[in-house]
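quick one before i forget lol
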Amino acid sequence: MDVLVVGKNSPDSEWLEERIRGWGYRPFRAPGAAAAAALADRRCFDLVVLDLGLENGNSFSLIHRFNRAWPAVRIIGLADVDSRQLELKARSWGVIHYMVKPLDEAELLTVMRHLARRINTEKPKKGDPA
């Protein structure tokens, strides 16, 4: 599973990248909205782990861009504060799981394993009509 990690904080993004790689997935790190958009133009991702606090509200423009480019993409939104209003907004834009920092590593792993199983069962098998 290819995972795009989009964050504003390098140590947090590095930590996420290390964990995701250690769990057997392929992480790609983008340090901000511009880098994420550039990566998104070059390849498709199964999952995006997105900091919802990117500069100038760019997180939500990225969500829109990702959903338009890859209709089946799953997005996990990360927030600095526990805000029901932000969670509802993120979910209305297509975020399927909302997590508050500091992240619970066990919860993230559980969510990622669940999503990987769903993604693997939804992908067409070799020889199946697309």
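fyi The chain has a mean pLDDT of 91.
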